[in-house]
Amino acid sequence: MISFPALIALGYNPLIANVTNAVATVPGYVGGCIGFRADLADQKPVLARLGAVTVLGALAGSALLMALPARSFQDIVGWLVLGSAVLMLIQPRIRSLVERRAESTSRVATATRVLPLCAAQFGVALYGGYFAAGLGIMMLAVLGVFRHDSLRRLNALKSGLSLVVGAVSAAFFAVSAPIAWIPALILAASGLAGGLLGARFARIIPPEGLRRTVIAVGFAAGLLLLVRK
Predict the structure, then answer these.
(1) What is the domain range of residue 150?
(2) Which residues cross the membrane (predicted)?
């Protein structure tokens, strides 16, 4: 959520900033999967099934981004950023609802309503392939609605599927999009370092203060993009 506005502030147009950000976020997803590796160990069958749908959705979203005129993305990116900021704003509410649902059932790791889940996951992955900001919150909400499991395990599954979206999009854009590689590599390195050091800094930086900062940046960037379009 921060890296995309940062690239815009550096003068990159929204399309280049978007594909560069997509590549740069992959190491962060890798770090998340490493952190949740114990919770992912026995979810491999689910990850494989939903992963296949996620690959298709991410490919569709990435292809859509590159197939449509760049102007069409510039016309809606401000709204997408604002939508991501709203998702971040209501994140505690979403997390609370998912957590209450997880606690209300004893059926752990049982997939329910498989077809609706796959359809919803395809839609989320398509969005992630097109524009990744807010992807994690959206995916957690979908998994929380359609799967009965603990919040931690849902977060682990979300991390694995987010990595699939990120890897597919990054690979697609690497051969088809004008990526700003130097900023991408810098952001990727900082994202990986942030993932590795996140637990340590979480004790110093209040999470709520950081969340509010990200929300403020998101709203400011979204409004600026709408004014400039």
Answers:
(1) 2-103+110-228
(2) 46-69, 114-143, 155-175, 181-202, 209-227
d(CA 190, CA 84): 21
* 33 vs 163: CA distance, rounded Å: 8
Whole-prediction pTM: 0.81
Q: Quote the pLDDT of residue 198.
A: 53
Model pLDDT for residues 41-81, shown as the tens digit of each residue: 999 999 999 999 999 999 999 999 999 998 888 889 889 88
What is the reported pLDDT for 193? 72
How much is the pLDDT for 22?
94
> Both tokens of residue 142?
């979908």
Which helix (H) or strand (E) covers residue 22, if one does?
helix 14-24
Task: Locate 17 and state its tokens.
Answer: 């900033």
**The tokens of 165 are what?**
């979206």
Angle at which helices 14-24 and 44-67 pack, to 10 degrees? 160
Between CA 79 and CA 10 the distance in angstroms is 20
Per the structure, how many domains does the chain have? 1
Nearest Cα to Cα of residue 50 among 115, 132, 105, 101:
115
- 3-class secondary structure, 110: strand
Residue 204 has pLDDT above 70, yes or no: no
The number of CA neighbours under 13 Å toward the Cβ of 193 is 6
How many CA within 13 A on the CB side of residue 225? 30
Residue that is written with structure tokens 């952001």 in the block? 187
Residue ranges in 110-150 assigned as alpha helix (H): 114-130, 135-146
